[in-house]
Fold:
Amino acid sequence: MRNISYLNLKAINKPYQQAIKEALTEVLDSGWYLRGKCVERFESEWAAYCGQRYCASCSSGLDALTLVLKAWKEAELLKDGDEVIVPANTFIATFLAVSEAGLRPVPVDPDPITCLITTEGIERALTSDPRAIVPVHLYGQLCEMDEIMNLALRHNLLVLEDCAQCHGINHLFDRQRALVPETHHACAWSFYPGKNLGAMGDAGAVTTDSQWLSNMVRKLANYGSSEKYVHDCKGKNSRMDEFQAAVLTAKLPDLDRCNQHRIEIAHRYIDEIVGSDVSMPAVTTASVFHIFPIMSNKRDALQSFLAERGIQTQIHYPIPAHKQKAYPEWKELSLPVAEAMSSRELSLPCNQAMDEDDVSAVISAVNEFFAQNR
Ligand SMILES: *Cc1c(COP(=O)(O)O)cnc(C)c1O
Structure:
C-alpha cells in the first residue's frame, strides 16, 4: 500500500541537504550565533521578496504578530484593552498575539465560500469600537486586501496581516495600493517548519514599509534595546538565530517552484475530485495552497476511509478559536460559518514532496469514497 503522509518534512528538506549542511558549518565556524550576518542577509532578501522596504526578524510567527501590536502600543496607536478584529477560523496564535499584547480579540465569522474574513464581517464588528484588524490569509489564500484597506482607511483601523500561511502570495498583491499610512500596516510571518517556507526550528518576521515600525519591532524583540544595556521600553527576547536564517536563505530561491507544485496539485484536485457532498476551495481566490481544504458533511468518515488507504489528512481547525477553553469570554458567541467549517473541513496532502502518482492515489480514494457514499 502507498503511504502518503500529510507533510513529510524530511522529504521537503531533502533537496537542500547540502546547502543546509554548508550553512550550518559556516555558522558553527563563524562563532557568531545571534544577530549576525546570516540574519541580516535573510532580512534583506525577505523584504525584497515580499516587495516591502523593511524586515525585522524574530523567533516565531506568534511573536511577529505580538511585537507589531506592542509596537503600536509604544506609539500610543493602541492602548490596553483595545479591541482587535480577528477571523474566528484561524490558528489560535492570531488570538493569542492579541491577548499577549494586552488587547481584546473580537472574533468575526468568515465568508462561507472562501473561508476568509471579509469587509462585511468586519463591518458587522464595527458596532463595538475596534482599533485594528488582523486579516488572516488562511490556507494560503489572499484576502480581499484592497477592500479591507479601504475600509481600514475609512474607519482609521490599523492593519496587521497574518501571513503565516501565504509565503509567496506577495507577487499577487500590489503593496503600492496599501492605502493606510505606512506606520499603520505590517505583515507577520511564521517560518515554523511546516509552513510553505519553513526553518528547522521556530522563526518569524515582520515586513513593513515603515522604518519606524521595523526598528521598534527589532528593539522590542531584543529586550527593548538597540544599544547594549540601554533599554528604552519593556521588550522581550525574541530573536531569530543565525542557523535558522541560513536555512531560510538556502530555501528561499526555491519557494516559487515549491508553491507552483502545490498549485498544480490543487488544480488537479479541483478538476478531478467529484462528489455530491463535497466542496472545493474557491478558485476565484489567489492561493499558494499552504493547505488544501475540502468541505464535506461526511468529513469524519472520509478521513477514516483515507487513513485505511494510507493517506494521512488533517483538520484545520477542529475547534474554532472562540470555542477554545482559553477564551471563556466567547463561550456563548455563535459564529455559524466558522463552527460549520470546524466540523466539515478536511485538509488533503498538498505539497512538493508528492509526485503525480501520490496525487492520483488521493484523487481515486476520495472519489471511491463519494461513489460509495452518495
Ligand atoms: C502557524 C501560524 C501562526 C503562528 O506561527 P508560529 O511560528 O507557530 O508561532 C500564526 N497564525 C497562523 C494563521 C498560523 O498558521
About this structure: The pocket of pyridoxal-5'-phosphate is lined by residues 60-62, 90-91, 93-94, 136, 162, 164-165, 190, 192, 202, 204 (CB under 6 Å). The beta strands are 54-58, 83-87, 104-108, 130-133, 158-162, 185-190, 204-208, 292-295, 345-348. The mean pLDDT is 95.
